[in-house]
Structures are given as C-alpha cells and as structure tokens.
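Bumping my old thread because nobody answered last time. Still need a sequence for this structure:
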C-alpha cells in the first residue's frame, strides 16, 4: 500500500530483460532467485522477459537488464533502440561487459571458424568481432561474472529501485579468499590462479573448492598484470598458456585483451593500462 491507495501496475517501475549473443545463463540467475523472485516481481512491472513470459510491453522501460555481446549489425541497431527506450541500463555478465568467450573470434579470422563449425557458412550473418554493450551505448552499471552472482544482482536491483548506489566490491578475489579463511592455492600448492587480477563477487568460489580462479569476473579496478604473468611463468605456464588464461571469459576487457607477457627476472614489467568500467572511450 502507498498511503491509503493500493499499489497498481502503473506505480511499479517497469523492467525489461534483453538477450544478445549469450548462453542465457545470466538471465537464468534472475529466475534462479527463487524466494526473492516473488518479492522482486511484486516491486516491478515486468514488461519484457522472454525467458519467463511471451507477454511483451511496449516500453519505455525504467530498468533494462542486458545479457550478451554485440555480434551482428542487427544487434547494433537493437541495442541503440533499447538504450533510447530505457531510463537505466545494466549489463549482465562477461558477454555483455567484456565480449564473452565469443570475443576470442576477435583475435582470429571469423571466416575460419565459420568454415569449420557450420555446414553452410553463407547462412551465418555475423560481425568479425564480439564487443561489450558499453562499446556501443552508455551503460549505467555493469555486473560481472560468467554467470553473474545472484547476491550482486539482487543488491543492484534493490539499490536501483530504492534510488541509491549499489554496494558492489571493486577489490580482487584474493580479498575474498582471505576473508573466508581459504589457504592460497598459488602460494601453498603452486596452482595457477587469476584471483589477484580478478574482480571479487563470487566469494572466491573456485579457490574454496581447490581450483585456481579463471577470471570469469573480469579485471578488478587496480591490477598488476605483469606481476601475475611473472608468477604464472614461475608456476610453469608457457607464454601461450598465460595468454589463454587471461583471455578466456573476458577476452575483450583490458588487460585481458592484451595479456602481459613475463619479462624475465630483472627486467622492467610492461605497463598495462588500468581496466575501464562502464563506457569505454
Ligand atoms: S556471461 Fe556466461 S553465463 Fe552469462 S550469458 Fe555469457 S556465457 Fe552465459
Ligand atoms: S588462491 Fe588465488 S584468489 Fe585465493 S589468495 Fe591465492 S591467488 Fe588469490
Ligand atoms: S573464483 Fe574466479 S573463475 Fe571462479 S567463480 Fe570466482 S571469478 Fe569466476
């Protein structure tokens, strides 16, 4: 109730969920909210969410959640249209914030992939690149991860609906390891781990299960890529393996876009530009 008046559909902010090149995993995180989903649905008017309903409202939308990367000419037209009709636009996951695994095409010849994967490559209409949403339109907030973290999604939704800034971490996964009392795999067992350069948010999920971090949350605010490259080198990874580690999930995010190479003892590490958040220049 708002005063003596019942809350009607018109009073609720409208929510739209959009898909571009992606696996749907980040949208499923929203559906996976289970208990919280009913509370969220009670606070918003869902106008467009094809994963959950075929009913489509015309917009404009108070909040658009966007999953996936830009890989076709039509994607470019569509994301500009969505931006025009959205008051706030939040991107979800590695695909939308860093091009995703499919951005690996950007470092190769997309026609080579097409000829190997598809029987009729001429039927496929695609760009040679997979780029983040923020490369094309202004983005109000990015949620990282492959997939995103449910807790971060709920924090972002409740904050934006309440008109406050979301409380999201910008430190590295290593801090989450320390807070959870997890023994450092890199130090104790020599396990290659991207935790030192990866943004927190997953609760150090992989190290807690004895696996090194693969960087699915993308680069943290302040990272020392060259120092990590030196450590991975000492752990026995080749330059090619180091490059692959950096690029896996967030191939088009700096510094993963241009992975630092080990420089060898005594040499000055290469300079790596700070990772950007939100719109890239
Ligand atoms: S970020 Fe990962 S989980 Fe999310 S849509 Fe892309 S591939 Fe799927
Ligand atoms: S296990 Fe990885 S994430 Fe955890 S403290 Fe060590 S290097 Fe950092
Ligand atoms: S530990 Fe690294 S790879 Fe594992 S979920 Fe967290 S960010 Fe992703």
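Sorry it took so long. Here it is:
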């Amino acid at each position: 109730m708002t005063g003596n008046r019942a809350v009607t559909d018109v009073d609720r902010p409208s929510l739209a969920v959009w898909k571009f090149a992606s696996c749907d995993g980040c949208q499923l995180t929203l559906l996976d909210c289970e208990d919280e989903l009913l509370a969220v649905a009670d606070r918003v008017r869902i106008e467009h969410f094809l994963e959950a309903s075929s009913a489509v409202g015309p917009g404009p939308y108070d909040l658009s959640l966007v999953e996936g990367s830009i890989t076709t000419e039509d994607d470019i037209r569509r994301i500009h249209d969505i931006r025009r009709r959205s008051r706030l636009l939040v991107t979800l996951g590695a695909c939308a914030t860093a091009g995703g695994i499919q951005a690996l095409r950007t470092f190769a010849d997309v026609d080579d992939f097409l000829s190997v994967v598809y029987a009729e490559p001429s039927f496929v209409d695609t760009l040679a690149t997979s780029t983040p949403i923020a490369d094309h339109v202004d983005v109000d907030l990015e949620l990282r991860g492959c997939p995103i973290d449910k807790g971060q999604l709920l924090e972002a939704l409740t904050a934006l609906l309440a008109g406050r800034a979301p409380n999201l971490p910008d430190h590295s996964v290593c801090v989450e390891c320390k807070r959870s009392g997890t023994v450092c795999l890199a130090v104790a067992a020599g396990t290659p781990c991207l935790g030192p350069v990866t943004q927190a948010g997953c609760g150090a999920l992989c190290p807690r299960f004895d696996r090194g971090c693969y960087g699915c949350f993308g680069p943290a605010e302040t990272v020392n890529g060259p120092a990590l490259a030196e450590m991975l080198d000492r752990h026995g990874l080749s330059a090619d393996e180091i490059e692959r580690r950096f690029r896996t999930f967030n191939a088009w995010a700096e510094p993963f876009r241009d992975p630092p190479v080990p420089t060898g003892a005594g040499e000055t590490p290469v300079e790596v530009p700070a990772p950007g958040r939100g719109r890239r220049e």
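The chain has two domains: 9-162, 169-281. Let me know if any region looks off to you.
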